[in-house]
Specification:
This protein is mainly alpha-helical. The chain has one domain: Up-down Bundle (Heme Oxygenase, Chain A), CATH 1.20.910.10. Helices cover about 65% and strands about 0% of the residues. Helix 7 packs antiparallel against helix 9 and helix 7 packs across helix 10. The protein is globular and about 50 Å long.
Length: about 220
């Protein structure tokens, strides 16, 4: 009698399949220096400007997913980040922030990728998983380090606040259940894992350029 191996759920495939890329992005020099407190508020503000471009593209893709029978379950209004980032930038740069922030070439490539693939449910799942679950996990560590090293309090750090998600773990559990319930076929699952790897690579490239700009 042949026993079929149990197929891992998508959330597990994404976590395990991106472990190396995730580690490489987290250990990029800019991230390590920022969290160690050896940079300055300007470096964090520059990061926030790149995040605005990325999340604007991601949340446009979220709007597309609202009309997708499978993808709509991954769209949560309480995850929306763009308004919070805009308030952070207004605090960090002042009221004329839109005229002074810059978007790096690596960020432009990241945004272009999101525009190109964001309407595909497997690719959207990969990018949303990479960004939002990271915000609810490691992002909270970043927030504490910015408070500790750079004197930032609530203003300027709203990106990391999720007032409609009082407890991250139960929400992340629900999100993973939604991922696992997408009913992707084998080809789509492989695509999601591949795209999540690409998301981490794009994020790492962004950190490399930020690091070069803030030596």
């Amino acid at each position: 009698m042949t026993v079929l191996a149990e197929v891992a759920p998508l959330s597990t495939r994404l976590r395990e399949g991106t472990r190396a890329e995730h580690s490489q992005a987290e250990s990029e020099g800019f991230v390590e220096r920022l969290l160690a407190g050896v940079l300055d508020v300007a470096a964090y503000a520059d990061l926030a400007a790149q995040q605005l471009a990325v999340y604007t593209a991601l949340e446009r893709a979220s709007d597309l997913m609202r009309a997708d029978d499978r993808g709509q379950g991954l769209v949560f209004d309480e995850l929306t980040r763009v308004p919070a980032i805009e308030r952070d930038l207004a605090h960090l740069y002042g009221p004329g922030w839109r005229d002074v922030v810059r978007v790096l070439p690596a960020t432009e490539r990241y945004v272009a990728r999101l525009h190109a693939v964001g309407g595909d449910v497997a690719c959207y799942a990969a990018h949303a998983y990479t960004r939002y679950l990271g915000d609810l996990s490691g992002g909270q560590v970043i927030q504490r380090m910015m408070q500790r090293h750079y004197g930032l309090a609530g203003a300027g750090l709203e990106f990391y606040d999720f007032p409609e998600i009082p407890k991250a773990k139960p929400f992340k559990d629900v999100y993973r259940e939604r991922l696992d319930g997408l009913d992707l076929d084998d080809t789509e699952v492989d695509l999601a894992v591949s795209e999540a790897k690409e998301a981490f690579r794009l994020n790492r490239a962004l950190f490399v350029e930020l690091g070069a700009a803030h030596l």
